[in-house]
Amino acid sequence: MPLLNVSGLTKQFGGLTAVDNVDFTINRGEIVGLIGPNGAGKTTFVDLLTGGAVPTAGKIEYDGRNITRMANHDRCRLGLARTYQIPQPFGRSTVLENVTVGALFGSSGRKLSIAQARIKAAETLEAVGLSGSMDAFPSALTTAGLKRLELARCLATAPTLVFLDEPLGGLNSTEVKDALALIRKVRDSGVTILFIEHIVPAVLALSDRVMVLANGRKLAEGSGAEVTQDPKVQKAYLGDLSATASRFARRRRPPVTAGATVETMPGEGNPVVGATATPSMTVQRETGQP
Ligand SMILES: Nc1ncnc2c1ncn2[C@@H]1O[C@H](COP(=O)(O)OP(=O)(O)OP(=O)(O)O)[C@@H](O)[C@H]1O
Ligand SMILES: [Mg+2]
Question: Which among 129, 159, 189 is the end of a domain?
Answer without folding.
Answer: 159
